[in-house]
Every structure is written in structure tokens, then in C-alpha cells.
Amino acid sequence: MKPFLSAFLLLFLLLLHQSHFAKAGIGSSLASLFKSLNKEKVINWVNGKKPPKPEWDKEYLKYLKPDPKLPNLPLNKERKGFAPLKQYLSNFGYLPSSDSFNNTVDQQTLSAIKTFQESFNLPVTADIDNHTLKLISLPRCAVPDMDFNYSFTQNVSWPKAGHRWFRKTNLTYGFLPESEVQPSFTKVFKNAFTRWANATGFLNLTETTYDDADIKVGFYNFSDVLIGDLFGFSFITENPPSDVKTAEINLNGNMYWALPSEKGDLSAEDGVLDLESAAMHQIGHLLGFDHSFMNDSVMYPYILPSQERKVELSNSDKNNIKKQYANVDSGGGGCLGVPSITILLSLGFAYMFLMY
Ligand SMILES: *[C@@H]1O[C@H](CO)[C@@H](O)[C@H](O)[C@H]1NC(C)=O
Ligand SMILES: *[C@@H]1O[C@H](CO)[C@@H](O)[C@H](O)[C@H]1NC(C)=O
Ligand SMILES: *[C@@H]1O[C@H](CO)[C@@H](O)[C@H](O)[C@H]1NC(C)=O
Ligand SMILES: *[C@@H]1O[C@H](CO)[C@@H](O)[C@H](O)[C@H]1NC(C)=O
Ligand SMILES: *[C@@H]1O[C@H](CO)[C@@H](O)[C@H](O)[C@H]1NC(C)=O
Ligand SMILES: *[C@@H]1O[C@H](CO)[C@@H](O)[C@H](O)[C@H]1NC(C)=O
Ligand SMILES: *[C@@H]1O[C@H](CO)[C@@H](O)[C@H](O)[C@H]1NC(C)=O
Ligand SMILES: *[C@@H]1O[C@H](CO)[C@@H](O)[C@H](O)[C@H]1NC(C)=O
Ligand SMILES: *[C@@H]1O[C@H](CO)[C@@H](O)[C@H](O)[C@H]1NC(C)=O
Questions:
Q1: Residue 193: its pLDDT value, please?
Q2: 144 and 130 co-located in one domain
Q3: Which ligand is closest to the CA of 104, given by its number?
Q4: In this structure, is residue 239 part of a structural domain?
Q5: Confidence at residue 7, expressed as pLDDT on a 0 to 100 scale
Q6: Transmembrane region positions (predicted)?
Q7: What is the SS3 assignment for 239?
Q8: Same domain for 15 and 33?
């Protein structure tokens, strides 16, 4: 083969490879998640017909089988599947984001794996082991776990603990009419909103129309997102020049969302998710709660197979609410009663949760 041709092919493959993984680039860059989303409205998810079992994208897991002959990740060597693993860790705040990740095993990624393991109370091996693989193969919320900011790019920001986007205590929510959200489903959300309102003690959450609502709920076609096991996310929108902000909960309409009465059928692996658990979790983000590493918390980012339905606030959640809302005078805007959490503190925060 002519040298220039092989160079061309190499370049082509490299680009193909990178664009493939770049599409999965979500997490700390909410704006890029937006771009990759197909916000086509999904209207046929409520009619009771379960969609076929989803084709999970486990690209990042394909090559990362723990290898007894290779117990430790070889530093500075290539390991197949490492680039998508780096992308994964970066999506959720464990590694800084990058336009393209390669397969080289580097110290920074090993530290990120270690932080991940410490945070989730897994054995700390700084290596790809079965415990770590098991967790990252589960469906999860798209909001990062750490190292992200409350800051607006293209008018959207992640919700973040320590920042209050709303200045009032009477808040409203509404459903995207095109999603054809049926009364049995809005009832589930109403319950979830009431549960949080009750727990905070001073928020009043009532339903209104989608256009007027402070919190807008809709189901969308997420099919263009490469990470197929993403079930939903929430974000804050600013509407300049007004300083009024609104919040949105976007759920993956390609999933089958189960009502509380269907809890016997729950199987995230088969694409059947509990609507009320997702509602509790996403509302939690919008009311100012980051992910919790306590596995009984409604703010735990993964859906554990034994906890497919989790709607009751745990003791750690309730303590967290007390801390967050302790100093809030009704009507006062701005920050909650916690200082904004910097990167270092948010790591410290993670350890704090583990020490409870
Ligand atoms: C992989 O990327 C890192 C930067 O993230 C770079 O330092 C390293 O040289 C790259 N390795 C290869 C083999 O390209
Ligand atoms: C990891 O899990 C695989 C499949 O379940 C098993 O074959 C392997 O022995 C496990 N490895 C370790 C180190 O436990
Ligand atoms: C978050 O904000 C801090 C302080 O402004 C900054 O140093 C840090 O780089 C930001 N982190 C991200 C992920 O944007
Ligand atoms: C942000 O919002 C303003 C006002 O609604 C709008 O003019 C502008 O185009 C928006 N920017 C983006 C990137 O959507
Ligand atoms: C909430 O709305 C009710 C009824 O409109 C009103 O009486 C109450 O003062 C409002 N609370 C706040 C904090 O604005
Ligand atoms: C909220 O609190 C009220 C009054 O204490 C109670 O009747 C209601 O059942 C609670 N709702 C939920 C969903 O916890
Ligand atoms: C809650 O808000 C609704 C609608 O704004 C209002 O009718 C109701 O009185 C409010 N309740 C409280 C306790 O403020
Ligand atoms: C979702 O989008 C994909 C590709 O754009 C399309 O093939 C599919 O029919 C859509 N699904 C629904 C339920 O609208
Ligand atoms: C939750 O965490 C506790 C403490 O780390 C552990 O003992 C328990 O097995 C975990 N539960 C599940 C379902 O993973």
C-alpha cells in the first residue's frame, strides 16, 4: 500500500473513532448533551405497549473485562476500551472533559477510578475490577456526580447544590402537552412533588400549564444519544434579559415508565423504569440536591437491581434537607444556607457522606 494511502486510512479511522466517542460526550458539558439530543417529542409511550428490550450501548464495557493475567492496568500502555471509559468518567465529573480521549492508561485516569471507587464505597483498587464494572454497567442519571458548576452555557445550566434558581416558595410545575402525559402519570409526579414539599416544610408546589410552569416536565426521544442507558436529566434555563429562571425535567420516552401499581414488572435491564423514582430524583436535583453516594438515598445516581423503586426519602436525605433549607427565609432568593461547593470540597463532601 502506498504510504500516503495508509496514512489517509489511519486518519480516517482515527476521525471515525473520535466522532463515535465524541457523541457520547455529555456530563460536565450540558450544552453538548443538548446538541446530541433528538428533542423530537415522543407521544406513544403511554399506551401500555412495552417497547422492545433496549439495545444497551455497552461499548465502554466490551473490552474492559477484568483480566486475571493482567491484574493491574499497565501504566502508559494502551488498553482497549480505555478511551470510552475515560469519556464515561469525564461525563460524570471524575475526569476533566476533553475533545477526544485515547486508550493510553495514565495516572490521571487511575486516580479518577480511585475517586470513583472511594465515592461509591467500593474496594479501592484503582483498577478495573468486577465491582467497578458492575456499577458502571447500570443505568443512571445524566447529572454529573462532582466537579461541575452552576453556570450557564447557551442559556442552560446543571442544577447544583448550594444554588437556588427560584426566588419564591410558591412554585408551579406543568407537563409538555405533546407528550400526552396521562392523569395516572401526572398523579405520580404530583405525589413526588408533594413528598418533597412536605419534606422541605415550606415549598408549595402546584400544577399549572406547561408554558406558565416554573418546572416543565416532558418525555423526549433520546434515541440519538449514544449512551443508551441514560434515563433522564434535569437542568435550569435562563431567559435573558429577564433574571427569571425555569427548570426542566426531560425523561427518555423510549423507555417504558412503570406506574407504582406495576412495581412487580420493574427491570431496568429490560428498559422498564419506575416513574415515581425518576420523578423523586429529578425533582431533588431541581430543589438543590446533588447526587448522594449513600445507596439508600433517592439521590443515588444509579438504579441498583435491588432498588428499582425508591421513592421514600432516606434519613440521610432528610438530614441533607435540614442542612440545605435550615437558613432559608421564605421569599429570600440567592443562595441556600450552604456555601457553594468547590471541587475540593465536593470531594470532601463525598467522604463525609461515607462517614455518616
Ligand atoms: C493520549 O492522550 C494524552 C493526553 O490526554 C497524551 O499525553 C498522550 O501522549 C496520548 N497518547 C498517545 C499514544 O497518543
Ligand atoms: C469477574 O467476573 C467474571 C464473570 O462474572 C468472573 O469470571 C471473574 O472470575 C471475576 N473476576 C474476579 C477477579 O473476581
Ligand atoms: C467551576 O468553577 C470554578 C471556580 O469558578 C473553576 O475553577 C472550575 O474550573 C469550574 N469547573 C468546571 C468543571 O467548569
Ligand atoms: C438565550 O436566550 C435568549 C433570550 O431568550 C435568546 O435570544 C438566545 O438566542 C438564547 N441563546 C441560545 C444559545 O439559545
Ligand atoms: C403563596 O400563594 C398563596 C396563595 O396565592 C399566598 O397566600 C401566599 O402568600 C404565597 N406565599 C408566598 C411566600 O408568596
Ligand atoms: C404531605 O403531608 C400531608 C400533611 O401532613 C399528608 O396528608 C400527605 O399525605 C403528605 N403527602 C405525601 C406524599 O407525603
Ligand atoms: C400554594 O399555591 C397555590 C397556587 O399558587 C395557592 O392556591 C395556595 O394557596 C398555596 N398554598 C400555600 C400554603 O401557600
Ligand atoms: C426516535 O427517533 C428515531 C431516530 O430519529 C426514530 O427512528 C424513532 O422512530 C423515534 N421514536 C419515536 C417513538 O418517535
Ligand atoms: C448499600 O451500601 C451498604 C453500605 O456500604 C452495603 O452494605 C449494602 O450492601 C449496599 N446495598 C446495595 C443494595 O448495594
A1: 97
A2: no
A3: 1
A4: yes
A5: 34
A6: 336-354
A7: coil
A8: no
Q: What is the DSSP code (8-state) at residue 297?
A: S
Shared domain for 97 and 43, answered yes or no, is no
Q: Is 129 annotated as belonging to a binding site?
A: no
- Domain that residue 348 falls in: 3-21+337-355
Pair 112, 169 in one domain: no
Residue 235 φ then ψ, to 5°: -155, 165
Q: Which residues line ligand 8 (CB under 6 A)?
A: 38, 40, 42, 44, 221, 223
- Residue at which a domain ends, from 103, 136, 169: 136
Task: Report how far apart, in Å, the C-alpha atoms of 204 and of each of 174, 196, 199, 215, 282 are.
Answer: 14, 10, 11, 13, 17
Ligand number, closest to the Cα atom of 237:
4
Main-chain phi, psi angles of 49, to 5 degrees: -90, 120
Residues 103 and 248 reside in one and the same domain:
no
Taking the centre of ligand 5 as the mean of its atom positions, its distance from the CA of residue 329, in whole angstroms, is 14
Give the mutation target among 166, 168, 202, 204 for probing the ligand 5 site: most ligand atoms within 8 A of CB. Answer: 204
Handedness of CA 116, 118, 124, 126 (dihedral sign): positive
The count of domains in the chain is: 3
Residue nearest to atom 4 of ligand 8 (CA): 223
pLDDT of amino acid 49: 59
206 CA distance to ligand 7 centroid (A)?
7
Residues 16, 157: one domain? no
Question: Looking at the domain assignment, is residue 74 inside a domain?
Answer: yes
Ranges of residues in the chain whose predicted pLDDT is under 70 = 1-29, 32-73, 223-229, 327-356
| pLDDT number for residue 27 | 41
In a domain, 329, yes or no: no
State in Å, rounded, how far the first CA of the chain is from the last one. 63
pLDDT of residue 35: 64
Measured by CA distance, the residue closest to atom 5 of ligand 5 is 170
Query: At residue 17, what are phi and psi to the nearest 5 degrees?
Result: -60, -45
Asked whether residue 44 is domain-assigned, the answer is yes
Residue 67 has a pLDDT of: 61
pLDDT at residue 93, as a whole number: 93
